Amino acid sequence: MIVLLLTLVMLVGLSLAGMLSAGEAALLRVTRASLTEALAEAELGRSPDPERAARIRRAQALVVDPTAIVASFALVRVMSEVVAIAAGTLLVQQVIPGENVPNGSR
């Protein structure tokens, strides 16, 4: 049971870290000009799409201060990586048979 739980925690942590890393890269790559152009196309194009326009407006709010957003993404990403690494370490300790950890006394 503990092996399954540790595996699940490790996979969720790594998945979250990967998604946050992709979000950081996307946020640093997008420009205000490209979002403004996409918004104009979504609102004034041949077939206006209000849902797409709303998503673009939310993205524009993130691009106002990308440094602060990326810093918060990085903090959560590093925390999820640490949790995943700790779970992986405990998983390896549970799976590999062997003696108990020595306590240093001989």
Quickly describe the structure.
This protein is mainly alpha-helical. Helix content is 80%, strand content 0%.
List the helices and strands and how they pair.
Blueprint: H1 2-29, H2 32-44, H3 50-63, H4 66-95
Helix pairs in contact: 1-4, 2-3
Walk me through this protein's architecture.
The chain is mainly alpha-helical and 106 residues long. 80% of the residues lie in helices and 0% in strands. Helix 1 (2-29) runs antiparallel to helix 4 (66-95) and helix 2 packs antiparallel against helix 3. It is elongated.
Radius of gyration over all CA atoms, rounded: 22 Å
Net shape: elongated
Helix proportion range? over 70%
Largest sheet: none
Helix tally equals: 4
Average residue pLDDT: 89
Order of helices and strands: HHHH
Structural class: mainly alpha
Low-confidence region ranges: none
Number of strands: 0
| CA-CA gap between termini | 34 Å
Q: Kindly estimate the percentage of residues that lie in beta strands according to DSSP.
A: under 5%
